[in-house]
Specification:
The chain is of the alpha+beta class. The chain has three domains: about 5-195, no CATH class; about 200-275; about 280-405, Heat Shock Protein 90. The chain is built from 13 helices and seven strands. Strands 3-4-5-7-6 form a five-stranded mixed β-sheet. Strands 1-2 form a two-stranded antiparallel ribbon. A hairpin with a 6-residue loop joins strand 6 (about 390) and strand 7 (about 400-405). Helix 5 packs antiparallel against helix 7 (about 155-190). The protein is elongated, with a radius of gyration of 36 Å. The chain starts with 6 loop residues before the first helix and ends with a strand.
């Protein structure tokens, strides 16, 4: 909501708009023409990128200039990059809607708004000002003068009457001038201020990322506690039972052997549990090797075509467990004889990319999330990171699961 600024502050807002808009038009035209002309030589690409980001500094200046008519500060709509450096900053800015809204406002300011501001200032202040200065103009001209190129004045009586009329006209037009300035500022605020829904969505995204990171940290803590605590105790117990069997009488030795086998079985189950919580291969070598390990454990033979870099821990964890769930579904429901898994990462810049994994089998098809095949849980696991699952499973097969996670 734009406050009721005084007429002089409103006039100052419009004057500075003209002073900003005119040079801005020239700068945008120079960047656009030079960028387009030099693009075949690749020199123009940085100029076009600079043109696309021109709205960022202009938006910051316009938010500051809004204080002339509205003292309430307008916060910047941009997020802070997760990584330092110009590449991370530019990569984030190019993907934000606020950047393109600022660019749209910049073009609007350069092409439309400042000429409109100048026209309003000329009508509301320029003409009355020229009328008020009629006596001075007559004195400088000598015999007669034409005020605002409209009225011929040849006597001081006419000049004084014109000056009085100009003063009255100025007082009358100051209120419409202030109203126009408030409307003009409202347009700027609409395009340059952060949208409430975007702020809420950004906060939800950040809080969800914090929850995912906390969940992964807790998962790894449980895995370490089991590995370094309960597993080591079971290993020691198994060794003690094995040593006790060597010197025990036959009857006791049989019972110790049974206890030894039970301890080994519990130890094996505990190792499988630890592997299911957070496999060490995922933490040490990354998602590609972890998928290969899951393929080796699969009940159905798997062919791999996976080339992946190291990614963020939540992304790697979600993708790994999604692939494991998909392989488990294949083994339980599809009747497939073979599974094919492909994985690629496509990125256009720092912090901007998508992980795509496809799981295909030659089973009977007919996979349905409503049929208890585990697809609902798989979808929920990916949705935590804004990922998507696409299922193509006609009756008779084959079944293709396409997973995509933004990175």
């Amino acid at each position: 909501m734009i406050s009721r600024a005084g007429p002089w502050r409103a006039a100052g807002y419009l004057v500075t708009g003209v002073l900003v808009g005119a040079p801005l038009l020239v700068a945008l035209l120079v960047l656009a023409v030079a960028g387009a002309a030099l693009t075949p030589l690749l020199v123009g690409l940085p100029l076009l990128a600079l043109l696309a980001l021109a709205g960022v500094p202009v938006g910051a200046m316009e938010r500051w200039r809004l204080r002339l008519v509205d003292p309430a500060p307008v916060p910047a709509p941009h997020r802070t990059p997760d990584e330092p450096g110009l590449a991370a900053w530019a990569g984030l800015r190019f993907t934000e809607r606020a950047t393109w809204r600022e660019l749209g406002y910049t073009v609007l300011l350069a092409a439309v708004l400042w000429p409109l501001d100048l026209l309003v200032l000329t009508g509301a202040a320029g003409i009355p000002g020229a009328m008020i200065g009629a006596p001075a103009q007559l004195a400088l001209a000598g015999d007669d003068t034409r005020v605002a190129k409209l009225w011929l004045i040849d006597s001081y009586a006419q000049a004084c009457l014109c000056a009085a009329g100009g003063a009255v006209l100025l007082l009358v037009l100051l209120r419409p001038l202030a109203r126009y300035a408030r409307a003009r500022a409202a347009v700027a605020r609409l395009l340059l201020a952060p949208r409430e829904t975007e702020q809420q969505l950004a906060e939800v995204t950040r809080s969800r990322a914090r929850l995912v990171a906390a969940f992964e940290a807790e998962r790894r803590r449980i895995e370490r506690d089991l590995h370094d605590g309960a597993q080591q105790r079971l290993v020691a117990l198994s060794m003690q039972l094995g040593l006790a069997r060597l010197d025990a009488p036959p009857e006791l030795a049989q019972r110790l052997a049974a206890a030894h086998r039970e301890a080994d079985q519990v130890l094996g189950e505990l190792r499988e549990l630890i592997h299911g919580i957070h496999p060490q291969v995922l933490a040490d070598y990354g998602l590609g090797d972890a998928i290969a390990d899951a393929a080796d454990r699969s009940a159905v033979p798997v062919e791999l075509d996976v080339e992946l870099p190291r990614l963020a821990e939540p992304v790697e964890s979600a993708a790994y467990f999604a692939v494991r769930e998909a392989l488990a579904n294949v083994g339980r429901h599809s009747g497939a004889r073979r599974v094919w898994i492909s994985g690629r990462y496509a990125g256009r810049g720092p912090g901007e990319g998508r992980l795509r994994i496809e799981v295909r089998d030659d089973g009977c098809g007919g996979a349905d999330a409503r049929g208890g095949t585990g697809l609902t849980g798989l979808t929920d696991r990916l949705a935590v990171l804004d990922g998507t699952l696409t299922v193509d499973s006609p009756s008779g097969g084959p079944t293709v699961l396409h997973m995509e996670i933004p990175c």
